[in-house]
Amino acid sequence: MKKKKWSCVWLILAFVLVLAACQQDANHKTTEGKVTDPKQLYTTAFQKMLNAKTYDSSIDADINIDTSNLQGEYKEIADVINNAKLTVDIKANEETKQSELVFKGKFSYENLSMDFNVPVYLDENKQRGYIKLDNALKSFGIFLGTSENHLKSVKNKYLEFSLEEDQPLNPHTEERLKRKLQESLIKAMDDIPQDNFKKSQQGSAQKVTLSLSNKGFKTFIMNYLDVCGETLKDPLTDTEMNQLKDFFEKINFKKLSMTATMDNKEYIHNFDTDILLHVDHNDFTGDIGFKLSTSYKNINGDVTLKYKPNKDQILTEDEFEELMTQATEMN
Q1: 0.85 cut: is pTM over it?
Q2: Residue 81 has what pLDDT?
Q3: Which residues pair with 161 in a beta bridge?
Q4: Residue-wise over 200-215: b if at least 16 C-beta within 10 A, else e?
Q5: How many CB atoms are located within 10 Å of the residue 106 CB?
Q6: Is the dihedral of CA 78, 80, 82, 88 positive or negative?
Q7: Coil, strand or helix: which one is 94?
Q8: For residue 151, what are the contacts with CB-CB under 8 A and spacing of at least 6?
Q9: Do 157 and 196 meet the contact criterion of CB atoms below 8 Å apart?
Q10: What is the pLDDT of residue 29?
Q11: Residues 298-330 pLDDT 10s
Q12: Digit-coded pLDDT (tens) for 131-149
């Protein structure tokens, strides 16, 4: 059970970059009831987003790796990543525990340039995920040596995979665990100074930027893990904590800022994350930059999931391998 719990912790940490502390002081509101305090405004908007029953969003990702100290295939791989364009469209229904992600983008290697578009459907109730195979092979089949016969054999088929790490949690336990982790996050973030939040106006939209220093971010992460361990009654061992500290010693967050743009109803329309970190490791020394731009097209509105497979469209891994073997023999 420990593995499952702490894997959830690491998943929640991905959301750490887009959350802020919760304060409920009435002095932070105007006479109309609107939140004016930057820290509380930031938190209120994200509480609404986290509590949303449905949402439709799109994430654009840009990664920039310093290649000055790289050579050979490592530099080639870094160049591919630096020049790649990646977008992830996400639609989710928290009530039915179903969602879909469509990975789209473009990458180039030497004289080869390729577009990709791969839908993935997730069903948390069944603890199963499904990859649309014809899209996946069309996008990446050139690296696998696939042919037209391979594409025909998997047309409109989905490869099934498991979402379970060890033993699945029942819905009640999973929801309680999620709630406890969020409570721990809020408690840990209470210590973020008010001055770290800066508010600005862009037309009718309000913008709040949260900035954290290298020391501030690392301190927050350590505090969060301590609170999580206490809340879940499953703290990190001394060995695990020392491993995390050793990992942090190799990384310096040179820049970490997160900007939320909200409408006058305090709903997030856009969220931009800008991270620049320096890595000092035996395998790599240099800067890595991450820029993520998330746009929310719809929160708590109607969401249609169009990539849910029918039973006759689903293939197990063994069935998929058998089809690939048959298609190869036909060539």
Answers
A1: no
A2: 92
A3: 129
A4: eeeeeebbbbbbbebe
A5: 13
A6: negative
A7: coil
A8: 134, 137, 138, 141
A9: no
A10: 45
A11: 889 999 999 999 999 999 998 888 877 776 766
A12: 998 888 887 766 666 666 6
245 closest CA partner among 273, 222, 275, 211: 222
CB 99 within 8 A of CB 305: yes
Q: What is the pLDDT of residue 170?
A: 54
Judge whether 62 and 54 are in contact, CB under 8 Å: no
SS3 116: strand
Q: What is the pLDDT of residue 305?
A: 94
Retrieve residue 208's tokens.
């709040």
Alpha-carbon gap, residue 103 to 301, rounded angstroms: 22
Contact call for residues 252 and 277 (beta carbons, < 8 A): yes
C-alpha to C-alpha distance for 219 and 106, rounded to whole angstroms = 37
Q: How many residues does the chain have?
A: 331
3-state SS of 239-300 is HHHHHHHHHHHCEEEEEEEEEEEECCCCCEEEEEEEEEEEEECCCCEEEEEEEEEEEEEEEC
Q: pLDDT by residue (tens digit) across 92-141?
A: 998 899 999 999 999 887 777 888 899 999 998 898 999 998 888 887 76
Tokens (6 digits) for 123 = 């069903």
